[in-house]
Amino acid sequence: MSKSLTLTPVEAVACCSPLVSAPLTEEVADRIAPLLKALADPVRLRLLSLVAGHEGGEACVCDLNDAFDLSQPTISHHLKVLHEVGLLDRSKRGVWVFYRVRRDALADLATLIGGGL
Q1: What's the number of CA atoms in the CB half-sphere (13 Å) around residue 79?
Q2: Which of 25, 37, 44, 63 has the greatest number of C-beta atoms within 10 Å?
Q3: Other Cβ atoms within 10 Å of 101 Cβ, number
Q4: pLDDT tens digit string along 40-96?
Q5: Residue (of 83, 104, 57) closest to 112 by Cα position
Q6: Helix (H, G, I), strand (E, B), or coil: what is residue 88?
Q7: Cα distance between residue 46 and residue 1, in whole Å
Q8: Cα distances (angstroms) measured from residue 101 to each of 1, 6, 19
Q9: How far apart are CA 93 and CA 60, in angstroms?
Q10: Is residue 111 a contact partner of residue 18, using CB atoms and an 8 Å limit?
């Protein structure tokens, strides 16, 4: 029995040529789109920036609540989306979940979009 290879959006970005080098196939574009959709939300884009810039390079929801006029569950949902597409790593410590930006994922995304321009 063979298993089909399923790539996360971040893995799909990492294995692709830069956009300026070759056109993406429909399949690859479909796999990368969730990553770009996650980043297209202003709250998620700000959250990614806040986590990346937080002292020590990681933050928990409790560190991020005051930056938004949103409930903690809403912020947690946005962080979950960023985690699911592969932009954030997370670790649970007691009752808190701490998030850290996956810099390799951002570098791969920059390479895909910029292609060394």
Answers
A1: 28
A2: 44
A3: 22
A4: 999 999 999 999 999 998 999 889 999 999 999 999 999 999 999 999 999 999 998
A5: 104
A6: strand
A7: 44
A8: 36, 22, 23
A9: 10
A10: yes
Quickly tell me which residue has 């009752």 as its tokens. Answer: 95
The token duo for 17 is 């040529």
Amino acid at 34: P
Residue 80, both tokens: 């979950």
Contact 64, 75 (CB under 8 A): yes
Instruction: Indicate the Cα dihedral angle 51, 56, 61, 64, nearest 10°.
Output: -60
Strand order in the sheet with 88-93: 58-60, 96-101, 88-93
Q: How far apart are CA 32 and CA 13, in angstroms?
A: 6
Classify 25-114 by CATH class: mainly alpha
Contacts of 108 (CB under 8 A, 6+ apart): 10, 13, 14
Looking at the predicted structure, is the pLDDT value of residue 3 above 50? Answer: no
Question: Backbone dihedral region of 80: left (phi > 0), alpha (psi from -120 to 50 degrees) or beta?
Answer: alpha
The pair of structure tokens assigned to 56 is 């020590």
